[in-house]
Known about the structure:
By secondary structure, this protein is mostly beta strands.
Amino acid sequence: xxxxxxxxxxxRNSVPVVGYYQIAGYRVKGDPYYKPExxxxxxxxxxxxxxxVYLRFDVYYQNIEFISTANKDQIMxxxxxNLDSFLIYKKEDKMIKEDIxxxxxxLIGAPGKCYYGCLYKGSKYSVYKxxxxxxxAPIDRTxxxxxxxxxxxxxxxxxxxxxxxxxxxxxxxxxxxxxFKDIKDVSEVVKAGNMFKNGDAAMIRVFAYLxx
Length: 212
């Protein structure tokens, strides 16, 4: 896919991307990153390990960008599959409340050429989150017809450990209750307010309960 970035400003640790992307005929504003600033983390592959590097996760293309200590003005890119996994360190001032480890989907039997983060690993069921982004029309619709913005999304996927079958579940109270109604009544462990405030924590509680 042809991608051009106009007015690109090489980021330091605290400088985000500015300007527009040209993607598939659209002029896209915003940024496709989990966090636009570079943060410390580790990268792992079968052939190399890099620790304490500044990186950021492009959730649209599923690329990992990083800054080499040998050339701090150049952004290097690892495309999907170049890494087995990567770790983003906890950094509360950037709203990263826990370390985040992302694993390449084929290595865990999950669908797609993308990365999944394990929220809870159980003997019966495990749950993962997948970070993605889509191109959507701006809400105000006052710009050009080809204007788009990045809309970042979190998908939740669970796997039945006995069959290794993955299935996506919508992160709402109603969807979670319906999905597991034949296994357990999860009404007491998932609440609407908690799901809205912290979907990850709510999913962890649900799957801990399902594994009891």
